[in-house]
């Protein structure tokens, strides 16, 4: 490996940033390019490999991984171009020689969501659920579109409620470290307030188990299956689909749902077309 790739992961990325700066790249471009390399480093480290010993096979495997993750062709091309620039910065342009990439457009399968009848049946079923916690969980998943892991990680301090105006917001922290703020519907504000005012514990977690511990993802999944015969992701899909159906800009939907690629959000357009057709 070229000596330019010696040192820690941080050293490598910092060196790449200097290279880009010397090439006259903008600050935003440098941040974006270094972010791509940081993600690549994380992917390598998860497989017990290091950027300091990267080879062509690693890059090819990473491209195949991105394709398997259904990343769009344009996104993969941008990532590849960054890796190509990175290889040049190391003085090792051969690292990206003959890397195979798909040239076909990826067709996304329309997600499974609740139709209007199923949605009303679900809301009707919550009325007979005596657990205020379970009802609040259903409403939170349905009206914020958060992932189950994100829901379980929520703290009471992440929720801001104004019961007088029936408004509120939640700060969601993704596993990637990114944060997003989602406004709360009046229905959800009511259910969350109803649940929180019934709590007599002082636990920081927004949702707790029957044993007064932070609720686990498996507990939520089991509850939804047993009580509502639902998979939590169907509620997330319903949230996204409803926003797209109402004409909300795809970039805003992607931001609210925490999609890393707006092409993932575009799959809901397919769902709308299928319903109209």
UniProtKB/TrEMBL annotation:
GO terms for biological process: cell division; chromosome segregation; DNA integration; DNA recombination. GO terms for cellular component: cytoplasm. It is found in: Cytoplasm. Gene3D superfamilies: 1.10.150.130, Intergrase catalytic core. Signal peptide: none annotated. Residues 109-277 form the Tyr recombinase domain. Its main location: cytoplasm. It comes from the Bacteria. Keywords: Cell cycle, Cell division, Chromosome partition, Cytoplasm, DNA integration, DNA recombination, DNA-binding. GO terms for molecular function: DNA binding. InterPro entries: CB, DNA_brk_join_enz, Integrase-like_cat_sf, Integrase_catalytic, Integrase_recombinase_N, Integrase_SAM-like_N, Tyrosine_recombinase_XerCD. It holds the Pfam family Phage_integrase. The keyword Transport does not apply. This is Tyrosine recombinase XerD. It comes from Halalkalibacter krulwichiae. The gene is xerD_4.
